[in-house]
Amino acid sequence: MSGTNAASGGAPCRFAHYFVICGIDTETGLEPDELAALYRWLEADRQGRDPDATATGENFEQSPLKRTFKSKVLAHYPENVEWNPFDRDAVNMLCMPKGLSFRTQADAREPQFHSFLITREDGSRTYGFVHTFYEEVTSSQICSAMQTLYQMHQAENPSSAAPSSTSSSSSSMDSLASSLDEADPVPSSSCRSVACSGYDASRDTLYVSKALCLITPMPFMHACRRFLSQLHRAITAPSPPPLPLESYIHNILYEVPLPPPGRSLKFHGVYEPIVCQRPGPGELPVADFPLGQTFTLLGVENLVQLFTCTLLEMQILLYSQDYQQLMTVAEGITTLLFPFQWQHVYVPILPASLLHFLDAPVPYLMGLQSKEGTDRSKLELPQEANLCFVDIDNHCIELPEDFPQFPNKPEFIQELNEVLLRFGIYPVEGTPLTSTPSQQALRELEDDGRNGNLEGEQLAMLELLQGNATLEKLQALTKRTGVHVEALRGIGGGGEGLGGRTGFEEEELRNAKLNVQLREVFACRFTTMFADYEAFVIQSAPDLESWLTNREQMHNFDKASFLSDQPEPYLPFLSHFIETQMFATFIDNKIMSQWEEKEPLLRVFDGRIDKARLYNVRAPNLRSSNYQKCTILKESGDLIQIPSLYLSPSSAQAIEQRLMKIDHTAIHPHLLDMKIGQGKYVQGFFPKLQSDVLSVGPTNSNRWSNRTATAQRRKDRHRQRTEHLTLDNDLKEAEGCLVLLNSMAFWEWDKASPPPLKPPKKSASACCLKYMQEARSLGKNLRQPKLSDLSPAVIAQTNWKFVEGLLKECRMKTKRMLVEKMGREAVELGHGEANITGLEENTLIASLCDLLERIWSHGLQVKQGKSALWSHLMHYQAREEKLEQQHIQSMGEIKTDVGRARAWIRLSLEKKLLSQHLKRLLSHTALTKKLYKRYAFLRCEDEKEQFLFHLLSLNTVDYFCFTSVFTTIMIPYHAVIIPIKKLSNAMTTSNPWVCVSGELGDSGVMQIPKNVLEMTFDCHNLGKLTTVQLGHDNSGLLAKWLVDCVMVRNEITGHTYKFPCGRWLGKGVDDGSLERVLIGELALPSAEEDCGRGCRTPDMQRSPGQTRRVSITSMGGRGYKPTSGQIQDAIGEAVNNICKHFHKPEKERGSLTILLCGEVGLVWALEQFFNNGFKSARLFQKTVFVWDFVEKAVAYMESADQMGDMQETTEPLGLTCVSLCRYVSAINSTSRNIGKDGKFQLLVCLGARDHLLPQWLPLLVECPVIQRMYEESALLRDRTTVNALIAVLQTLDDFPITLEASLIKGIDL
Fold first, then answer.
1. Is pLDDT at 301 greater than 50 in this prediction?
2. Is the whole model's pTM more than 0.85, yes or no?
3. Tally of CA atoms within 13 A in the half-sphere of 857 that contains its CB
4. What distance in Å separates the CA atoms of residue 130 and residue 631, rounded to the nearest whole number?
5. Phi then psi for 496, rounded to 5 degrees?
6. How sure is the predictor about 886, in pLDDT bands with cuts at 50, 70 and 90?
7. Cβ neighbours for 468, distance < 8 A, ≥ 6 positions apart
C-alpha cells in the first residue's frame, strides 16, 4: 500500500488529517513576502502609478524586525489525503498570516495559539489549529542577512532611532495595511526600547517564529490545543520526552479515530491524556470554541445585535489584535445560527495579502487583525453602507442603518444573562474596560489562559494570582522588568479536581456545559418562531429532477401567509430574514428531504419541533408575542420545566456523562520502526522528523505491533469493534461514512484483515450538487477567496465572478419585486382599494438599496464617504446637473450619506426615474473612469446595460416607497381649483378655503387669495392624499361657485391627485352646501411626463366622479337610474371590500375613506338604495333630498316620543330611536355648511363607525313618513330586501372602523 493510499484510506474518520510545520527555509534564506509585494502591486495599480516599478523595490522604511518575510511549509504529513487534498499555499498563509516574525532576546517571545478554517467550494470546512513559538536562528547566513538589512534601513532612515508614525493616506486599503504591518503582540516598554535600537549580530540573539499545526475535519479545539501545547513542552523541557516526537504525531494522525456521534474518546499526548466528545444525533452539532468568551468580549446586547446582522446576511467585519479572538467570535456566531447555516464568504482570519477582498460586493463574515492604538476613525473600509463593524478589543459594534431588532430582544437578553450569571460570567456591555496595571496584567494572563497560550506552570500562577491583590502587583512588576518568576508547584492546573478530573478537564466540562446551554436558548427561539414552518412549505414538484430543473421558477415557501400568521412585533425582522439565502437553503433542504435523507441540522430541528408537539407545550395562540423561556439545566443537574421545549435527556447532562465515563480509548503512542541517530533531542529546537515513518499509516507487517499485540489487546479491540458495530443506525456519519470506519485504527492492530472500505453512498443531492450550487449562487459565487493562486489574473477572474453575480442578483430582485407587486395589484384592480406599501414590499426595496450600494462600491478607486452611490451623485452634480439630489439635500431629518442615497433611490423609484437617472449618471464616462477601476461592475458595458434594463422594468408598477417611509419631512404641495366655466363664474367674490388631507395627516384650513385659483404650500408629509375639503364663506354678490375638480401635486414625488367635485358651492343652489369633502384619486401622468418611464399599471384608487354626483343633484341629471339588482350588488361589493380591508395586514390596508365615500363605496351604494323609488319633485317645487326624509322621520319620532306613542316599544328599540335622533341633531347643529348630501354621508359614516346602521334601518322603514315620500315599489318599502340589507350591514359590526378627521370635523358625539 503506497503512502498516499494508506493515508487516504480511513481519512474521513481519522481525528487529524495533517500535521504541518511552517517556518523559515534556511536554504532559500530571507525572502520578502510575495503576497505583500502583490498587495503593493494592486495598490499601485489602483492609484494609477506604475505597478511593476512599485512591486520590485524593497520596503526600507520599516525596521527589518518589523518587515514581512516569506514563510514556507517546511514539512507536512502525510503527503496527501484523498478526501482533503493539501493546499500548501492556503495552509501556509493561514498558519502564519503575517509571515515570519523575528525577535531578539530582549523581546517578548511567549507562544501563541490560534485556529483557522478553510471552506471548500461545496461548503464543507477543514479546521486548522496552530501553536506558534520562537526558535533561535542558528544559520549564520540568516543572521548576517538581517544585519545587512538593518544597516541598509539605517542608511535610508537616519532618524529611525525613534519609531516614526506611518503617514496617513487617502487610500482606504493603505490605512488597512498600516493597521496590519505591526500587529504583533506588544512587548513591554523596556523590550520596546531595545527593539527600536535595532539588531547587532555580535550582541543580539535572533529568534524566528515557527508554527506547529494540526488540520482536522471537526473543530475539536481544546483537544488540539492541548496536544500541540504538550509537543511544545516536550522540546523546551530539560529532558527529552518519553518517546520520539514521531510516535505521538504518528499516533494522532493514524491511530486516533474521530469519536462516534454520542460517544467520548481518550487519546494520549506527550505527557497527559486528552479527552474529546461528540454530540449525539439528537443534540446540537459539535462546537468547541468557548461561547462564554465570545459573550465576555462583546457583551450580551452587542452579541445579539451581531447575531441579528448575521441572520440578515449583512457584511460583517470583525476587528481584533488577537487571531484567536477573531476565530472564537466568528465560530461562536455561526454556531448560534442553528438550524441555519452561513452561505456566503466566510474568512475569520483575513491575511494581509487578501485585503482587496473587503471590496467584495457580497455578504461576508471576515476577521481583520488590528494593531494596538489603531484609531477606528482613520480605518477606511471599501464599503460601509451595509457593514456591521465589530471592534472586539474595545467591546463595541457599529450597526448598519435601517436595522430591525431581533424579536423579544429584551427578554432574550435577560434569559442569556441568567445563564451567564449561573456560570459566574459578567459580560461587559459595550464599555471599554478601565483597570490598574496589576489588573491589566492579570487580565492578559486570563486571556492567554482562555486562548491556550499558557503552559501548566503559568496556569498555576494564574490561579494563585486570582483573588490575591499583593501577588497581582508583584506579577505586574515582574512583567514590567522582564524578570521571570518560577511558578509555585503543586497549586492549580496540575492537580485533580472533582471526580478525579484535572483542572483542564474541569474547565473544558464547564465550557461545554455553558456552550450547550447558551446554544439551547438560541435554538429555542427558532423552534418557537418556526414551529409551523412546514405548513407554509410549497411542495409542488413530483420528483427531485423536475424540482431541480424548475428551481428558479418555483415558489417554495408561502411567505405572505407565513408573515400574516406571525405576531406584529416579529414582522420587521422576519420579513427580512425569510428573504435571505440561508433561509432559502433551509427550505430547499426541507423539500429535498422528501426524496433523500434529511440534512443533519434539519433532522435535529424537525425532531425538536415534533417533540414540542408531542409534549403540547406550544403557545395556544399562534400570533402571541409572549416570550417563552428555554428549559435550562441548573448547576445541580436538575431540570426546570419552563413553558418551552422539553429536552430529555439534557444535552448538558449527556456531555457530563460522556466525559465522566469514557466510551473509547485510542491506542497509546508507541515506538516506531525508525532510523537510529536521526532527530536527536536538542532543548529549544523542534527536530527534523523522519518523514518515512510519518507518511504511511500502520500496517500488519509492523514488527513492533507483532511483538506487543497480546491476546488481551486483541480482546479489548474486539470488544470496542463490537460496540461500534452495534450502534444504532442514527449514529452513522452524516457524510455516509459508516461508524465501522471509526474503528479502523483498532482493526489494523489485529492480525485479522480489516473490513472492506466502501465509498460513501452518493445521494441525489450529491449528483446534482453542481446544479444546486448554481441555483443558490445569489451573492455566493465565492464562499472563500482562493488562497493557492493570487496572481493578478486570478484576482481579475474573481472580480468577473462578482460582476456576474451582481447582475444575476439584480435580475432576480427586480423580477421578484415585479411579481410581488403585480400579483397583488391584479387582485385589487377591481376593488377600487388603495394599497399602502406593505412590509414585504418595503423589505424588497431595502434589499434593492443594498444591492445598488454594493454595485457602486465594487472597484472604487478612492473611497469618499460611507456611501459610494451618493459620492458619485455629488461628483456628477458638481460637473453636470442635479438628478433629484436637491430634494434629498434639503431633508434635514437624514443625517448620513447612506441615508441620503437610500432616500434618493426610493424617490427615483417612486417617480419611475431610477433607471433613467442612473443611465445619465453613468453616461459621464470620464467621471466613471476616474472613480472606478477597470474591473468594476460599472465599467463593464454589457452588464451595465442589462442592469439598467432590469431597473427599467420596475417602471411598470407604482411604488410609494419614498412617501410611506419619510413621513416627517416637509413637502411642498401645489393646489389648483378648476371651475366649470360654462355654467358659472370662473371666480367667486366670497373668500374660498381649502384643507388637504392624507393618510398621515392634514394641512389645516388654508385661505385661498381672492381671484386666484391656485396656491403652493409647505406641509409635513401627508402620505397618499385622500380628501380635500373645499368651501367659502358665501360673501359677496357672486357667491355661488360650480367647481369641476381640485388638483393637488406633490412637488417632490411629482404625484398629482385629482379630487372630482361637479357640484355647486353656495346657498340656494344644489343642496345648499358651502363646503364639500372631495375624495381623491391618483391622476395618470400625461404623455410628455410619462415619456421614457415605460408603461404603468392601471390606477389603484377610484373616487366619486362627476357623473355620479350629477345624477343625484337637482340639475336634471337623473337620467341614470340603476336597477334594484345593481343596487343590491353594489351594497354587497362595498361591504365586502371593507371586510377584506380589515383582513389585510395593518400596514397594507390603504385608505378606509375611499371604501366608505369613494366611487362604489358604502355611502354611494346606500344613496342609490335610498334614492330608489324616491318621489321626484313636482314642477316649480323645491328639490327634495334623502336627508329631507331622514329629518322628517326623526321629527316624527321626537314628536311621537313627546306624545307618549313610543313608550310601549321595547327598551332596545327606544334606545336606538334616541341614538338616531341624537346623531341627526348633532349633524344638523354642526358649524359646518356641508349640505344635505354631505349630511347623509356623515350619518352613514358615523353609523358604520358605531355599528348602528342595522339598528337605524328598521326605525326609518317603520316610520309613516316613508309612505308619503317613497313609491310602493321602492326597495326601502320591501321588507325582504331591507332585512337582507340589515344582515349585510351587520357583518361590519366585527371591525373597528376609524373615520378620517376631515369627515367628522365639528361633530361632537
1. yes
2. no
3. 29
4. 37
5. -95, 145
6. confident
7. none
